Amino acid sequence: MKIGIMGGTFDPVHLGHLLAAEQALEAHSLDEVWFLPAYLPPHKRKRTVTPPGLRLAMLKEAIRDQPRFRVEEAELRRGGITYTVDSVRELCRTYPQHDFYYMIGSDALASLPGWRGIGEIAACVGFIELKRQGCPDTGRALPEFIADRIRSAGMTPVGLSSADVRARRAAGLSIRYLVPEQVLRIIESSGLYRPDEHAEVRNVSISITGGTDS
Fold first, then answer.
1. What average pLDDT does this structure show over 56-65?
2. Which uninterrupted H or E stretch holds 138?
3. Which of 2, 41, 158, 196 could pair covalently with 16 via S-S, beta carbons 3.0-4.6 A apart?
């Protein structure tokens, strides 16, 4: 099967994530898209990340009505600082029958040569560039071993990030229609991203298992 991989912290997952995944699925005739939530990304160590159980619960609820979406929990099971090369290595070893395509925003494309283990990553997976409005075409400036592995998928411009969602919630503004309704219910019932910086976050008890079905 052809599998798209969407990595991220998903803190929280929002409609922009889901729209990008759906459009990449169609543009490249993918069989499935697997969402790969990070335990702790190296570039986000300076801020507090929502507990993994809560992020996983939101993600599973967000995708439950799309049978071609699933959650892959490899990084959550492994714990610690998360590097893409470790996850790609595990996926390719565990599922040698699949062809994987790692989805990356056009704004992050230029950073690929600096990724840890990029040679191994590019040997194991292709890349699907999620083209974003206003981002320059950096594909031609990339090393050939990366550029040859990139496909592009035009995205409907959304202009939404998880940081936007958190900021609106912290400011006491509505985030309805920015996240799926079931995700909004988890955010509200758990006290996530509230204006009061001392607010207690009520975690969700959810098992991170060896299985990856959503």
1. 98
2. none
3. 158
